[in-house]
Every structure is written in C-alpha cells, then in structure tokens.
Amino acid sequence: MADMDPFEQAQIQLARALKVQKISDALSARLRKPEREITVAIPVTMDDGTTRVFEGYRVQYSSLRGPYKGGIRYHPDADINEVRALAFWMTFKCAVAGIPMGGGKGGITVDPKTLSAGEIERLTRGFVQRLAPILGPYMDVPGPDVGTNAVVLGIIADEYSEIVGKPTPAVATGKPINEGGSEGRAAATGAGGMHTLMALLPHLTKKKPAQMTVAIQGFGNVGSFLARNLFSEGFKIIAVSDSKGGIHSEKGLNPDAVERYKKDNSTLKGFPGTKSITNEKLLELPCEIVVPAALENAITKHNAKKIRANIVLEMANGPTSTEADDILFKKGIAVVPDILANSGGVVVSTYEWEQNLKGEHWSEKDVLDKLRKLLNRESKNVWERSKKLKTDLRRAAFALALERLEKALGAKTAK
Length: 415
Ligand code: GLU
Prior knowledge:
Layout: H1 6-20, H2 25-30, E1 36-45, E2 51-62, E3 68-75, H3 80-97, E4 103-109, H4 117-131, E5 140-144, H5 150-164, H6 185-204, E6 213-217, H7 221-232, E7 236-242, E8 245-248, H8 255-265, E9 275-277, H9 279-283, E10 289-292, E11 311-313, H10 322-330, E12 334-336, H11 338-341, H12 344-358, H13 364-389, H14 393-413
Parallel strand pairs: 3-4, 3-5, 6-7, 6-10, 10-11, 11-12
Antiparallel strand pairs: 1-2, 2-4, 7-8, 8-9
Helix pairs in contact: 1-3, 1-14, 3-14, 4-5, 6-7, 6-12, 6-13, 12-13, 13-14
The structure holds glutamic acid.
Protein name: Glutamate dehydrogenase
Active site: 105
Family: Belongs to the Glu/Leu/Phe/Val dehydrogenases family.
C-alpha cells in the first residue's frame, strides 16, 4: 500500500494548485478539513458461528456543490486517512466533471476475497445500519470502489430502504440493473478514461492510436473496461496485471480473450503467448501510455525515473506521488490526472441517481453518449486551462474545480 500518506499528498496537490489559481481564504480554509468523519465498529456473525468486528469509515468531505458522493472500498489496507484522501479527491473530481455532487468516500478494513457472500451481505447491512442517519439521496450517496460491486451497492440501497421504510434506490449508485442500476455504469469508468485520452491525444502526441502501445496495471472493473475500449480504438495493449502479477506480449493482447482466460483460471498467469511480468516492471515497460489502474502510490520517487511511457493515464485514485509528478514533468511525460481521467464512473453514478429520482430508465446508448459529450467538454476545458495558466494538467484540473467550488461557496454566502 501507500508508502506516502495519501491525505498529505492530496493536500500538497491542493497547495500547488493554489499557486496558479487564486481562491478566497474562506474556501481555502473549508477545503483543509472534511465536514464530517465517522468510524464505526460492525459486528458480523461469521458462517462458523463466531463473531468478528470490522472497522468501517465514511468521510463526508464537502457538500458545497451537492450531496456527498463517492465509493465504498473494501480492502485490508483501507483506513480513515486513506478514505479521507479519497473523499477529498471525490470533491475535486465531481467539480471537474461539473456534476451536482459534493465529495465523500467510505471503506471497511477487510479482505472481501476471504468472506463468503453471506458474510459480505451481513457486513454491508451492518455498515448501513450504523451510517443510515447520515446517508440519503439528498445527503450522501455511496457508489462502488475497489473491492465492492453491484451486489454490494444493491444491498446498501435495500438495507437503507428497509430502515427508512420506503424504497429509496437513489441512496446508492452502481446497483444491479434490475434494482435501479443504470445501463452503462459498469463500463463507465473505463469508457470515460478512453474519452479523456482521445480528447487530449492530439495535444499530447502526433501519433495515431494504431501506432501506440499501452501497459495497464490493474485488470479489475476499471482496467478491463479501459483495455477493451482502447483496443477497439486501435491501441495495442502490450501488458496487463492484477494483484497477483501480470502478462506481457509485444504482439499485443485481446482484452476479451484475457478476460475469459482470467474467469476460467482465476489468474492472468499462463495466458498463451505471454511472458509473466511483475506489477513494478509493468510500469517501466517501453510503451506510449502507461495506466496505473489499481491503488495509490504506484508511481513514486523510487520508480518515476524508470517510467519510459510518454503519457501516464491515471485510472486509479492517487496513483502518482507529488515527488513523482515533478520527476515525470522534468522527463516531459504528460500525466492525465485521476480527477479527470477516472471521473466517468461517478458521472454515470450521477446519471443513475438522476434516473432513480425521476423514475426513469435511460438506454445504454443515451447514457454513454451523454458521458462522452461531458468528458470531451471537460477534457477540453482542462487542456485550455493548462495553456492559460501555463501549468500541468493536474494543476489545471484542480484550478477548474476550485473555480466551481468558489462559485458554489459564493452562492451560499450571498444569501
Ligand atoms: N469509486 C469511484 C471513484 O473513485 C466512483 C464513485 C461513485 O460512483 O460514487 O470515482
């Protein structure tokens, strides 16, 4: 896990952005601390009859632009400080995307792979029982993140609905389609990464997708959909990995075939025509685009010098430390920041919330078209801001978010 404190990293990113984007003292003071944090102990009766108590968290960072919004992470390394950093990034992500949401995040310190489906359900219901007073469609709307999926989000909405005594699907997003989920939500983060990349590509390189190779660290929901999207645009995927390690082929991989292989063998290792590669070495491969799509601090001062790609597309949250940012910048490597590149997930989560509130169900085409238009627009905005401020894409994305947060604060204090 992180070798640097993620919340400290997040605050350094903010401090750097404040050098290029002036904001009021009132906003800067508000953005230094979350509005509310909660830690809960969740007792769960395990399948063998014993009781285990798990620790869970929800950080509600900012409600300036709307209800708190952000995923729930189930991971053995999840802790309050990580969740706080992730909630901070959600605040900026929702502002960059221009969706009417604030920022929040939740987590439970648990390895979900070691729990049965029943144990995960009891854990999730227990978590919701303890958080219910601070959740709600107009208060705080959880979504999926590392280690959670549509089943978990469906349970969250169901338990909340039981507690308040009425069906309330808009309390959570990323649900199964037949429980109020949106078409396109599963594919959204990966699709969004592709749209962001395609919108910025002409500014970053003269090459066309068919001339470009890609290495992706992380072949979970985000990485696998991104791989499929990039593959269909003509990019050559030369390496992918999961938490156990990766595979590499100069000839290129077909993400659908890799996905099927992983399903059948529960590992990527041994995929025909590939060599194994570690997660560390994958990031250092000579290629055009490297994609950290797993966890924080994948690229740090220890390995940034060894990155040989021309573009880093951040699909994980907080994968690049601020020291690494400086090293990459000096090497002329463009970093497409997480708060823009991976915002497709929360954008379609917001479409799901909107559909639930209106009692509508939109087609997959409508959802994904809307997402593409939004990301084309906001990627262009971030690019133009970086030119105007003569700064990198991360500071530019933060600057745009800060301007929108300032407007929201202005509207509040004008009353
Ligand atoms: N976990 C995703 C993120 O980091 C999406 C959260 C959501 O859909 O609310 O942006």
